[in-house]
Design a protein that fits this description.
The chain folds into two domains: 4-99, no CATH class; 130-267, Rossmann fold (3-Layer(aba) Sandwich). 54% of the residues lie in helices and 13% in strands. The protein has helices at 4-18, 21-45, 52-69, 74-97, 101-115, 118-121, 130-139, 156-164, 177-190, 221-231; strands at residues 146-150, 169-174, 195-198, 211-214, 237-241, 252-255, 262-267. It has a seven-stranded mixed sheet with strand order 3-2-1-4-5-7-6, with helices on one face. It is elongated.
Length: 268
């Protein structure tokens, strides 16, 4: 009776990883490499000599074409085209500066700790800023609430709300290790009551919270809405900074004082 359960859990994650745009882009670069070799060979047979930069641009062109064929978003086509020449330029700068390989390993580790599973979730690190904090604080009802910021980053909103609203239970959840660590350190240093969890918000029951705040990405909004609609209690609030839910228009919207960003509100 219990044997098939791990398989049912594993398969969706496996499919999700394989469908991640970053992984598909990596496959695209790998598939473009033999096309670049063949093109370079044919051009050389025709008497056309190419520089390393021209070969890198050719590789980027093939990769961008494959990204288009795989129906990746337009920005992925640009990334695919620019990646090979950028890599070549970085290698040249490293040689000119005589940088040791450990520098690149260190940069890679830091970026990995910051962005972590962005390749799968398609949610980069966004920092909301004080104008968003003010909008959220003004919007909260004047009664004790359980509030959670999903994808809390370095904890700015959570720490601010915990300070302004001591009557509320304010929590942040973050998947990336380095931002999570930064938020915990900030909370300890300031003596804040705010709580921070490290993990994937998809494993939380959103029904435990009266207010859910999200600053994610367009790619994550449909899944967030399905989860919120299934789990959140009637009368609770779902807030999204900048990004709308395609399946349902917001009930209210509030524009920041500089008029550049919007906080969208859904009443559950």
């Amino acid at each position: 009776m219990t044997g098939p359960a791990p398989r049912r859990l594993w398969q969706p994650l496996w499919r999700q990883i394989l469908q991640a745009p970053a992984l598909r882009a990596l496959f695209g670069q790998a598939a473009a490499f033999p096309l670049t070799l063949a093109s370079t060979y044919l051009l050389a047979r025709a008497g056309v000599a190419m520089t390393y930069l021209e070969v890198a641009l050719l590789q980027g062109g093939w990769a961008a074409l494959l990204a288009w064929r795989m129906a990746l978003a337009p920005w992925w086509r640009a990334i695919q085209f620019l990646f090979p020449p950028a890599l070549l330029l970085g290698r040249g700068l490293a040689d000119a500066a005589s940088l040791p390989p450990a520098v690149f390993l260190g940069v890679f580790i830091v970026l990995l700790l910051i962005f972590w599973s962005t390749f799968r979730t398609q949610v980069p690190l966004y920092l909301s800023g004080r104008e968003a904090w003010d909008l959220v604080a003004d919007l909260l009802p004047e009664r004790p609430l359980a509030v959670i910021d999903i994808g809390s980053g370095v904890g700015g909103l959570v720490l601010d709300l915990a300070r302004r609203r001591p009557d509320c239970d304010v929590t942040g959840i973050e998947l990336a290790p380095l931002p999570f660590l930064a938020s915990r350190v900030r909370a300890l240093a300031s003596g804040s009551r705010a709580r921070f969890l490290r993990g994937d918000y998809e494993r939380l029951n959103l029904g435990h919270y009266d207010v859910v705040f999200a600053y994610l990405s367009p790619a994550a909004m449909s899944a967030l809405w399905r989860k919120a609609a299934a789990e959140m209690k009637p009368g609770s609030l779902l807030l999204s900074y900048e990004f709308v839910i395609p399946e349902r228009a917001p009930d209210r919207r509030f524009v920041t004082t500089n008029g550049q960003k919007t906080l969208f509100v859904w009443h559950i």
